[in-house]
Amino acid sequence: MPKRNDIETILIIGAGPIIIGQACEFDYSGTQACKALKEEGYRIVLVNSNPATIMTDPEIADAVYIEPVHWKVIERIIKKERPDVLLPTMGGQTGLNCALDLVRKGILKKYNVELIAASQNAIDMAEDRELFRKAMTEINLEVPHAKIAHSFNEAQQIQLEIGFPIIVRPSFTLGGTGGGIAYNKEEFKEIINHGLEMSPTTEVLLEESVIGWKEFEMEVVRDKNDNCIIVCSIENIDPMGIHTGDSITIAPAQTLTDKEYQRMRDASINVLRKIGVETGGSNVQFALNPEDGRLLVIEMNPRVSRSSALASKATGFPIAKIAAKLAIGYTLDELQNEITGGQSPASFEPSIDYVVTKIPRFTFEKFPGSNDRLTTQMKSVGEVMAFGRNFQESLQKAMRGLEIGVSGFDEKVDTNSLSKYDFTRELRFPGAERLWYIADAMRAGLSTREIAQLTGIDPWFLVQIADIVNEENSIKKTNIKKLSFEVLKKLKTKGFSDARIAELCCTDEYQVRDIRNKIGLHPVYKRVDTCAAEFSTKTAYLYSTYEDECESQPTNKKKIVILGGGPNRIGQGIEFDYCCVHASLALKEAGFETIMINCNPETVSTDYDISDRLYFESLTFEDVMSVINKEQPLGVIVQYGGQTPLKLARELEKAGTPIIGTSPDSIDLAEDRERFQQLVEELSLLQPPNCTAKNRQDAIKMSTNVGFPLVVRPSYVLGGRAMEIVHNKDDLGIYMDNAINVSNKSPVLLDRFLDLAIEVDVDIIFDNEKNVLVGGIMEHVEQAGVHSGDSGCSLPPFSLSKDIQEELVRQAVKLAEHLNVIGLMNTQFAIQNNIIYILEVNPRASRTIPFVSKSIGIPLAKIAARVMVGESLKQQGYTSKRVPSYFSVKEAVFPFIKFSGADPILGPEMKSTGEVMGTGRTFGEAYAKAQLASGVVLPIKGTALLSVRDRDKKDAARLATILSSQGFNLVGTHGTAKSLNQSGIKCNRINKVREGRPHIVDMIKNGEIDLIVNTTEGKQAIEESLSIRSAAVRKNVTYYTTIGAAIATCTAIKHIGDSSVNCLQDLHSEVSL
């Protein structure tokens, strides 16, 4: 069936910002879909609010709208662009829900827009819990006993039928948001009420518990002729009860019998047929009772999902690309498998001769007070994937790729405490480190049977882990030189890293590496080809293993290696992958062969067609050096992947790796407090008073000279890890007592905190001819003290004078010149009373690069990559700064709803998972759109609660005046209300929680508050006001913890409903004029 000729324009809805449960896998799928449909000659219109995505690059679609993924906004775009069809299956749950809103509101009918790939009925049947249950029953597939409730009273009646424990699943939410497992009435009430709040349809499914059952997924693709293929089967090592996004997963499934696999395969295809997914990829999840083989269908996603990205990367089969082409009329047999060079059609089911392991990465340390046990609600922020010829190799390679300070099954429990340690909590109620506790339990003498009973993990996996632990015991404290070639090779085939072998043999990894080199023990590289080597492939998608035949076939071309960012985490996300992709694309255009090394299956950088050669490897010294030795590149880029490759820079340089661009020494100079301070003084620039403390006594003593309040943080961290503002010596002492690994090598940095200062970011490119391109000057919305990654910011600045802006650029250029920067550099400044202070300099790619590039219409990461290989700015034609006439505002998105015990206050430690962007002719319009895109509902009337610290009282009067003029009633705590009333602004006083009832939290819970502004400082005050912020998160009340953001919001409220939609290409054409 050929492609449709009745279509001219296709609208694709993206997934919006990166949040827990919906990460950058949808940038991968959206990018693939846009490219696939564009090459078929269709005009593509894309809507997505996330500027850090490749899919929102102006080259990817014909018209790109970085606008809120909201039906009202998309109606305006439809009215303007008049698409023929809408593809809703590439934008995750956000895109799907938005498409359904457009159907229900009659927008698609009004403008005669057709839904393709999945109909409204299909989406409803898959997403609506009750409809899905009925559909499965009709095709004789069993689902867990369950019923739907729309109120707490209904839920109570259903619970009496089902009993405890009971699973609660809210409808139409993402990543299990609002759901959980209730073991008693108290938990039940809390989860039900929260679940009903979170569901857009006020609906929860109450389900019989299948906790402890085995969990499987099937990734299925279907076309209009009812051709169906299973792309791959995925098995969760963790049992039911842990969200699949938080589970350690394996492809292909390892413990199914052939009969069980065939049952699942047939059931998956029948599910797609029944639901009515005509074309594209879908994911079907199953639970299997290990006791009696009972098989249940848990759910299906009628769209490209998180598992689709994993299945694509695991097999090499481009699910999103194929799904997009099926949506416009092609059938599987008409499409060629590109990875085999067209030797096989897409209707051939992928076949793999290796094992793939995915391990999620968590950041519970960012949210103290939150529940760090894994449940049905997803909590991980990223993941790593690894290939191996067997399960053990794949597992251990993935473990070291997590970058959490382990090189394998490192001990978590001290050896002397093993016999006394109670493993029950860690095994029965698993957390992020469950794998390591399993190994420790084995070291303590627990049998695989006992561990299987505690964890619900299939004994087959435990036997494999036990074998690794036994191997460790056999070489412990052995002289490394006495290990034979055969023993070392056996260890390497089981995935042991040099670092882990070194630790067990009481030496360092360099000695292990030297011995391997001397005896000629090196990894070989195998190809991911979708066909288990049945056909030859020209696509260089590679992974390492320890066998005899190497399939890498390196060329003699000019090569550049780009090191990716590894698994996503808070502080290092999709922005860095964006930069890596841009480097690869730019250098390919410049005539280089590009080689990507990365281990993140969610990203665009790990698509097989982005770089000339892709090595899916962990970013450790051992794994990276093995690739470099094999490929012998002209240069290596370490400056684009965040801290991950930067940490390797010195080691790689010492091993003879040719690092291009800004040197590791210059990067180190900017990171090293004392060296950088010396440079700043030499250049007659200013820093806030600061010092470096190596212990508690030094910190207390030096703090007197620096002055309070202080910003304290460890050295060499990303995302403000463990950064705090302290207001006195007692708080400083507590911080130093709790600081992790403070030493001479890892001191704590103390800086004077510049309160009420304006924070600014400046991004520039500096070339080897000392020419500079100013990317942008971004003024932060929040005042200094909020991490730059969590602060909203505006480009161009909304309040800085021309003189200040010129001086900021002059200082940034001066620093770049003396740091010998070649490429990108980000400088953060604070301005207090018109005095400019340098906060920090990053001579590398920063997380602001995608936002600035989209704002000004210049691909900064591409330009800088070419600068790094010797091409000047003048040669590229970029010599003058571009200042747009419109405003672009970046806003952060936070995961506090997932971590109910954590304090949602903003501070110097980064907590956001993603970002959005809004554009407008005024700052207020752009900020309003950014707020809508981030999920904040700006109230236009009602009651505003103000409770601010003394330092903000003056600005609070300005804020209160604006709110009053907009018709808000004002209430405030004692000090704030008194101050406002004295200024002539009417504000009713309400009780703080400790002052008696009814108090603030009562009013929030009763729905009497519509907007909250709560600024505070000092440990005691922050703790006292935590209940206000927590209640606001739970009741979904719009709140701000900085006065700057609150004032910006009031400016934005005036623009609700009257903003225009802006095509990125049109905006960029204005700047280039």
Quick take:
The chain is 36% helix and 19% strand.
Distance between the first and last residues' Cα: 45 Å
Q: What composes the largest sheet?
A: 7 strands, antiparallel
The percentage of residues in β strands lies in: 15-25%
Structural class: alpha/beta
Proportion in helices: 25-40%
Q: What is the overall number of helices? A: 38
Major β-sheet strand ordering: 14-13-10-11-12-15-16
Number of strands: 38
Low-confidence stretches: none
Globular, elongated, flat, extended or rod-shaped: what is the shape?
globular
Mean pLDDT figure: 91
Radius of gyration: 28 Å
Structure description:
This protein is α/β, with parallel strands linked by helices. It is built from 38 helices and 38 strands. Strands 14-13-10-11-12-15-16 form a seven-stranded antiparallel β-sheet, with helices on both faces. Strand 30 and strand 31 form a beta hairpin. Helix 2 (71-81) crosses helix 3, helix 14 crosses helix 16 (459-475) and helix 25 runs antiparallel to helix 26. The chain is globular, with a radius of gyration of 28 Å. The two termini are 45 Å apart. The mean pLDDT is 91.
